[in-house]
Write a structure and sequence with these properties.
Pathway: Amino-acid biosynthesis; L-lysine biosynthesis via DAP pathway; (S)-tetrahydrodipicolinate from L-aspartate: step 4/4. This protein has 269 residues and is an alpha/beta fold. The chain has 2 domains: 149 residues, 3-Layer(aba) Sandwich (Rossmann fold), CATH 3.40.50.720; 108 residues, Dihydrodipicolinate Reductase, domain 2. The chain is 38% helix and 23% strand. The chain contains 10 helices and 12 strands. The strands form 2 sheets. The chain has a 7-stranded parallel sheet, sandwiched between helices. Strands 8-9-7-10-11 form a 5-stranded mixed sheet. Helix 1 links the parallel strand 1 and strand 2. Helix 1 packs across helix 9, helix 4 packs parallel to helix 5 and helix 6 packs parallel to helix 7. The longest helix is centred in the middle third of the chain and has 17 residues. It starts with a strand and ends with a helix. The structure holds NADPH dihydro-nicotinamide-adenine-dinucleotide phosphate and ligand LZUJQKHR. NADPH dihydro-nicotinamide-adenine-dinucleotide phosphate (NDP) binds next to helix 1.
């Protein structure tokens, strides 16, 4: 499967270039960065630390998509939205790892999936986090609507630009699903000053940023006299890249539509 990596000089882009070259059935068709990026013209393999692979980073998306089977995209929300429309036009697989989408951007990606793109989108492409989400959903369902308070805590590196993380929101959505409630209607994303007592049935988020932390998430279910914590720690971005490439290979045989990593991994609650 011929894959185009968008954001090839980024933290995830470099990891993806390495993992694609190591994965049977996948090959690197093109590596892209935005117009004006200092990475344009550099060898994608040299940037990824795997030596010269004879493929330079380019900026022309339309030329890069010519002859490609799929796109792996860990960039920024506006970039992913405009690429989803192109993927629909060309009937391509589009794996979206980007996080930080607003509701209107999600709606635009849903539209692209209805119009011909095979989209796999997830705030976290790792097996571990997607299994954790299943466990969170089960725990929230088993513990009932409000006897236990649910809080999602995350920590990431100092460069991360969105909060709460896509993973924190994915875990919050799993908890909300287990409780049979809507996350947007029950989430508390910021607390500051005299907040009043905790609202019954809410799902809280707390964000830490610093250093080089790849990604750490805990879902805390706090009851009277006891507390359950379900956690995941990522120590290597390769887990996300492997998941993304697996998603692309899986999506190749699917009809157009919007899929999640749970679909790819066959994980049901
Ligand atoms: N779902 C998952 O499993 C994971 C998701 N992520 C998410 O992936 C995204 C990227 O993370 P990360 O790699 O750390 O970020 P980086 O900033 O390191 O990488 C993003 C790259 O995309 C480039 N870019 C921006 N605009 C364009 C464009 N129009 N065309 C091509 N390339 C472009 C950036 O270039 P420039 O710097 O010049 O703007 C940069 O090189 C984030 O949203 C993050 O949350 C990260 C890890 C795992
Ligand atoms: O920006 C990151 O680095 C990560 N982003 C994703 C998120 O927002 O959850 C996934 C991972 O935790 C790393």
């Amino acid at each position: 499967m011929k894959l185009v990596v968008l954001g090839a000089a980024g933290r995830m882009g470099r990891t993806l270039v390495k993992i694609i070259t190591e994965t049977g059935g996948a090959s690197l068709h093109a590596a892209l960065e935005r117009e004006g990026s200092p990475a344009i013209g550099s060898d994608a393999g040299l940037l990824a630390g795997i030596g010269d692979i004879g493929l330079s980073v380019e900026a022309d998306i339309d030329a890069a998509l010519d002859g490609a089977d799929g796109i792996v995209d860990f960039t920024a929300p506006a970039v992913s939205v405009s690429l989803a429309a192109k993927a629909a036009e060309k009937r391509l697989v589009h794996v979206i790892g980007t996080t930080g989408f607003e509701a209107d951007a999600d709606a635009a990606i849903g539209k692209a999936a209805r119009n011909g793109a095979v989209v796999v989108k997830s705030g976290n492409m790792s097996l571990g986090v997607n299994l954790l989400a299943v466990l969170v959903e089960q725990a929230a369902r088993a513990l009932g609507p409000d006897a236990f308070d649910i809080e999602v805590l995350e920590m990431h590196h100092r460069h991360k630009v969105d909060a709460p993380s896509g993973t924190a929101l994915l875990l919050g959505a799993a908890a909300a699903k287990g409780r049979g409630i809507s996350l947007p209607e029950h989430s508390v994303r910021v607390r500051d000053g005299i907040t009043g007592a905790r609202e019954k049935g809410s799902i809280g988020f707390a964000t830490l940023r610093g250093g080089s932390v790849v990604g750490e998430h805990s879902v805390i279910l706090a009851g009277e006299g006891e507390r359950i914590e379900l956690s995941h720690a990522a120590t290597d971005r390769a887990i996300f890249a492997r998941g993304a490439v697996k998603a692309a290979l899986w999506a190749k045989d699917q009809p157009a539509g919007l899929y999640s990593m749970r679909d790819v991994l066959g994980l049901a609650a």
